[in-house]
Specification:
The complex is a heterodimer. In chain A, the strands form two sheets. Chain A has a six-stranded mixed sheet with strand order 1-7-6-10-8-9. Chain A contains 16 helices and ten strands. In chain A, 42% of the residues lie in helices and 13% in strands. By secondary structure, chain A is of the alpha/beta class. Chain A has helices at 19-25, 29-39, 51-60, 81-88, 90-104, 121-133, 165-172, 201-213, 215-219, 252-259, 306-320, 326-343, 349-365, 369-374, 376-384, 386-390, and strands at residues 6-7, 67-72, 108-113, 150-155, 196-200, 229-236, 242-247, 266-269, 275-278, 296-300. Chain A has three domains: 6-219, NADH-ubiquinone oxidoreductase 51kDa subunit (Rossmann fold, 3-Layer(aba) Sandwich); 229-300, Ubiquitin-like (UB roll) (Roll), CATH 3.10.20.600; 306-396, Up-down Bundle (de novo design (two linked rop proteins)). Chain B has four domains: 14-107, Ubiquitin-like (UB roll) (Roll), CATH 3.10.20.740; 121-239, 2-Layer Sandwich (Alpha-Beta Plaits); 253-302 and 364-436, Rossmann fold, CATH 3.40.50.1780; 311-362 and 449-577 and 594-629, 3-Layer(aba) Sandwich (Fe-only Hydrogenase (Larger Subunit), Chain L, domain 3), CATH 3.40.950. Chain B contains 21 helices and 17 strands. A five-stranded mixed sheet of chain B has the order 2-1-5-3-4, with helices on both faces. In chain B, helix 10 (301-323) packs across helix 12 (363-379) and helix 10 (301-323) packs across helix 16 (461-475). The two termini of chain B are 47 Å apart. Chain A binds chain B through residues 159, 161, 170, 173, 175-176, 178, 180-181, 183-184, 189, 192-193, 317-327, 329-334, 354, 357-358, 360-361, 363-367, 372, and chain B through 13-15, 18-19, 73, 75-79, 81, 89-90, 92, 95-97, 99, 110, 113-114, 117-118, 121-122, 124-125, 154-155, 180-181, 183, 200, 202-207.
């Protein structure tokens, strides 16, 4: 297994696997939901929907069969924290999922595992079996009469868009991985039309921690709107790339100094779909109310050509758009063509501003989060790195040295 | 109460089924209302109503492209986005069912900018020039571009076609260079018709609509119904158009060109000339066809009457075998055979039920066969010089006339199938003002048709026509005595599946024309005839599954299947657009023509009786009739080798 080079201390180290489940079962389902609501935990996949609220909706949804789905389709460029969590702390994730089953009244749990993580299957299956042997999965979980819950692993097939929860559900059902219209939301009409909660790997792991250590423990770090801690996957031009846990609300500058990347030219926060912050904005905070992220931090050193960075991300989205809605399917290639024109020094400022307003349309009118965020990197790079973007002339195309 | 399959449940793939937004889904008593403010106007609508529908109610127009009344929601083109107060992103109004009070703006800067960008993006992939397109002035993309004042291609325009045009099919031509990926065809094929010949493949900018393994359309399970054509917003899908060949035949002095016209096009062709749906132009069209240069104008209803006699006799023979003789199994229920879309559907998906299909040809093919035999002989014309053209509401009829077995006259029985749209184009090309033509009659010897023939054009029509004849021939009393004005109302309507049981109270003597086949009707005395009607192959699918599983419909006697929703009036060759209201208006015109017909029952058509007397002397299902008027089918299955 591939272990990250560097890792910081984790609050997960202080919580034993299975303790989260024990703590959950000591509470009523409503108390579990209340604890999460109290903690202020928000979805750690990046979208930041309050976990307690999501679980409350699903718990209130009518229906016998409900599903707890763990989104382990970690596909955001620069993100590798879920791989790390499933390798080192899978027990906590499973605790969190089982607590979810307890809280919303579900019998079925599914880990939707990224296709590239197939190698992890044996390890996870062994853990699941061990839990079944200990009656932590299966019939009467933890000795609670009538609480049946089991977890199965289902493999993704390598589509980035399947990390979007409704596309993930479509994929689970055997359809093309394409996002659905919302509403209805998965908490009402999810997998097989049944109420379902889809949460990120990290969210489930924090659920276990919160149930063990209490909502107050979690709330005491972070900001008012972004409580608690967050796992970051840091890569790029820094001295200590790796997986770290930081409190929410950390400034970009603090994060950079912790990983040895203080002289960065820019930081891409939130992966390809995230925001590219220039050095002038390093005093901003990483939080849902400022710069949100699913945990990907890519550091760009002084020698990086930011136009190439934008191009790289756009190539990714041109490929990974599901192809369903017009703004995303056709908009991303137009932005990419624009970057190619910029590279050749053949893009007028007028057309560039047209492309920026197209980017805004993509953010506003795309069907799902992929399309809504795919222009972010391009727009922020154009905004902050004018010289990199515009300072190409036709005769020096391809020969520019930074 | 027997639990027959319902027509309104269980539509295909779960992923698409759930996206059917039902305004009826609004709380326990169905009366929950929600208050919306749209562009400052207040409106209360039931919970579950889409923003688009709510806006329509207060007269606010929101442009759409991928949305279609007949199809489940997609929300993919994003043209219909609106701004909702408190929401970060714009919402697709066609796909947003309201449940809470909302303040909606339909034309803010963001909305206008987004719509214009989306249209420009679609145009950047839409190859071709409007004036060289069959959908010129009838294209939703063109209309949108006009509505949003597109006067240049902001994001470019393709200079070269990217995709080869697939004209492998006799019925449907696919030109993916014009496709804007609204996926209406996919939803039509998978969800509305439950055929599944088309699906989106690939991702991102490589996404396109394709057949299984990218095979030519002629080599996949396409049933040729053409419903995708009727719902395509652009010219990406069209029927295989033989207009040039038809003109060439008209222009050739050595050719005797006859056209037969089916009932459904008459009720719809006016729409191509700016008339509202539901105004029949039957007799104006006769004059126009003569002006175009057709030598004879015949009425397909004549062979529809003939079909009733052949198919009805066949049914009685099967019933006699089942109820009287006990030897050997009898393939019941009998299925109708006039819809070529349905026939190909059955050949692909239920080939084991081919014995149940009536061997009677469709009226179109019967007409071709007798034109090149009976008519040729009667008028002393060499059949090789006769060109038979069929005006049909249908794209599958083009395939049907090209079936290799359809040469029983010794020649290709029907040379060309024209759709309503193609004929409208010919009439326009000839400079004819169709709605204002002087009416004129059909030509002899097939000039007389009955109301029964006319109603073949609407779902339930074949069943009603057959029942009028079978009841009268068997019971021996006027059908008017059993059903007022001979209108068998229970078989009519637009419900997807309709089941009717008719008890035969008593039997009369066997009429002369059937005496060679039946001694008496005693075997039917007191029997209950169970019949059903299904239209659209999604409903056919439900009926067939019920039969396959030994459900209640396996005990039925006779089932009318139509490949297209609404029957022929909703056929794949009819004017575009289509909707339930349009189809209902066309059906009304059809039943109006039936109601005003002098003769209402097929077996009372004097020309048909004369035809049997002079030509098919052995009567229905006799030797010559079997040669000319009956056919066989091809078990195709789903696995097709190219």
């Amino acid at each position: 297994m591939i272990a990250p080079k560097n890792r910081g201390p984790m609050s997960y180290d202080t919580v034993k696997a299975e303790a989260g489940l024990t703590a959950a079962l000591a509470k009523t389902p409503a108390e579990v939901v209340a604890t999460l609501t109290e903690s202020g935990l928000k979805g750690r996949g990046g979208a930041g929907f309050p976990t307690g609220l999501k679980w409350k909706f699903a718990a209130e949804s009518q229906g016998q069969d409900k599903y707890v789905i763990c989104n382990a389709d970690e596909g955001e460029p620069g993100t590798f924290k879920d791989r790390f969590l499933l390798t080192d702390y899978a027990g906590l994730v499973m605790d969190g999922m089982t607590a979810g089953g307890w809280a919303i009244g579900a019998k079925h749990g599914i880990i939707y595992l990224r296709g590239e993580y197939t190698y992890m299957c044996a390890h996870l299956e062994a853990l699941l079996q061990a839990r079944r042997d200990k009656q932590l999965l299966g019939k009467n979980v933890g000795g609670h009469q009538g609480f049946d819950f089991d977890i199965e692993i289902r493999m993704g097939s390598g589509a980035y868009v399947c990390g979007e929860e409704t596309a993930l559900i479509e994929s689970l059902e055997g359809q093309r991985g394409e996002p659905r219209n919302r509403p209805p939301f998965p908490v009402d009409t999810g997998f097989m039309d049944k109420p379902s909660i889809v949460n990120n790997v990290e969210t489930f792991a924090y659920v276990a921690c919160i149930l063990v250590k209490g909502a107050d423990w979690f709330k005491k770090t972070g900001t008012a709107k972004s409580t608690g801690l967050k796992i970051f996957s840091v890569s790029g031009d820094c001295e200590r790339p790796g997986v770290y846990e930081f409190p929410m609300g950390i400034t970009v500058a603090d994060l950079l100094s912790a990983v040895g990347g203080s002289d960065a030219k820019a930081v891409q926060i939130g992966g390809a779909s995230g925001y590219c912050a220039p050095a002038a904005e390093f005093n901003r905070t990483i939080a849902y109310e400022d710069i949100a992220t699913g945990g990907s931090i890519i550091v760009f050193g002084q020698n990086r050509d930011m136009l190439k960075v934008a191009k790289n991300f756009l190539e990714f989205f041109v490929e990974e758009s599901c192809g369903q809605c017009t703004p995303c399917r056709d908009g991303n290639p137009k932005l990419l063509e624009g970057v190619e024109l910029l590279e050749k020094g053949r893009c007028s400022t007028k057309y560039l501003s047209e492309l920026c307003s197209l980017g805004e349309t993509m953010q506003l009118a795309s069907k799902c989060g992929l399309g809504q965020t795919s222009a972010n990197a391009f727009l922020s790079i154009v905004k902050h790195f004018g010289p990199d973007v515009m300072a190409r002339t036709p005769h020096c195309a391809g020969h520019r040295k930074s | 109460m027997v639990d027959y399959p319902k027509s309104d449940t269980g539509r295909a793939p779960v992923s698409q089924k759930r996206q059917v937004i039902s305004p009826g889904n609004n709380g326990a008593d169905g009366s929950a209302q929600v208050a919306l403010t749209i562009d400052g106007q207040q409106v209360n609508v039931p919970v579950g109503t889409t923003i688009l529908e709510a806006a329509k109610q207060v007269g606010i127009h929101i442009p759409t492209l991928c949305a279609h009344h007949d199809l489940c929601v997609a929300g993919v083109c994003r043209v219909c986005v609106v701004e909702v107060e408190g929401m970060r992103t714009l919402q697709a109004s066609c796909a947003y069912p309201v449940s809470q009070p909302m303040n909606i703006q339909t034309h803010t800067r963001k909305v206008r900018q987004a719509r214009r960008h989306i249209i420009d993006l679609m145009l950047s992939h839409h190859y071709g020039e409007c004036y060289a397109c069959g959908r010129n002035n009838n294209c939703e993309l063109q209309a949108l571009a006009k509505e949003y004042g597109v006067d240049f291609f902001r994001f470019g325009h393709p200079e070269k076609p990217e995709h080869e045009i697939d004209n492998s099919s006799h019925s449907v031509v696919r030109d993916m260079n014009k496709c804007v990926l609204c996926r209406r065809c996919v939803r039509t094929c998978i969800d509305l018709q439950e055929v599944g010949a088309l699906e989106a493949i690939n991702r991102g900018d490589k996404t396109r609509i394709a057949t299984f393994m990218d095979q030519p359309l002629a080599s996949v399970v396409c049933i040729n119904c053409g419903q995708c054509i009727n719902r395509c917003p652009t010219g990406a899908l069209r029927a295989n158009d033989p207009t040039d060949e038809v003109w060439a035949a008209i222009d050739d002095p050595t050719k005797h060109v006859v056209i037969q016209t089916a009932p459904a096009p008459r009720a719809a062709i006016g729409e191509c000339f700016g008339l509202p749906p539901g105004r029949a132009l039957t007799f104006e069209m006769n004059t126009a066809l003569r002006v175009c240069g057709f030598d004879r104008v015949f009425d397909t209803n004549f062979t529809a009457d003939l079909t009733i006699l052949e198919e009805g006799t066949e049914l009685l023979l099967r019933l006699q075998k089942a109820l009287k003789e006990t030897s050997g199994p009898v393939a019941l229920p009998q299925f109708t055979s006039c819809s070529p879309g349905w026939i190909k559907y059955l050949e692909h998906f239920y080939p084991e039920y081919i014995p149940n299909v009536s061997t009677a040809k469709s009226p179109q093919q019967m007409f071709g066969a007798i034109t090149k035999t009976y008519y040729a002989k009667l008028h002393g014309i060499d059949p090789k010089d006769i060109v038979t053209v069929a005006l049909m509401p249908c794209s599958a009829k083009k395939f049907e006339c090209n079936r290799p077995e359809m040469v029983d006259s010794g020649f290709k029985d029907v040379d060309y199938g024209l759709t309503t749209r193609e004929l409208a184009k010919m009439i326009q090309e000839a400079g004819i003002d169709l709605p204002n033509m002087q009416p004129s009659d059909f030509d002899e010897p097939f000039g007389t048709a009955t109301g029964s023939g006319v109603i073949f054009g609407a779902t339930g029509g074949v069943m009603e026509a057959a029942l009028r004849t079978v009841i009268e021939l068997v019971v021996g009393v006027k059908v008017e005595n059993l059903f007022e004005h001979a209108d068998i109302i229970p078989v009519r309507g637009m419900d997807g599946i309709r089941c009717v049981e008719l008890k035969i109270p008593s039997v009369g003597p066997v009429p002369d024309i059937l005496k060679p086949l039946f001694e008496s009707w005693e075997f039917l005395n007191g029997a209950t005839l169970k019949v059903a009607i299904a239209h659209g192959t999604a409903n056919a699918h439900k009926v067939m599954e019920d039969i396959k599983n030994g459900g209640p419909m396996s005990q039925f006697h006779f089932i009318e299947f139509m490949g297209c929703p609404g029957g022929c009036i909703g056929g794949g060759g009819q004017p575009i657009p289509t909707s339930l209201e349009i189809r209902q208006a066309r059906a009304k015109a059809i039943y109006g023509e039936d109601s005003s017909s002098k003769i209402r029952k097929s077996h009372e058509n004097p020309h048909v009786l004369k035809f049997y007397k002079e030509f098919l002397t052995e009567g229905p299902c006799g030797h010559l009739s079997h040669k000319l008027l009956h056919t066989h089918y091809t078990p195709r299955g789903k696995f097709i080798t190219p």
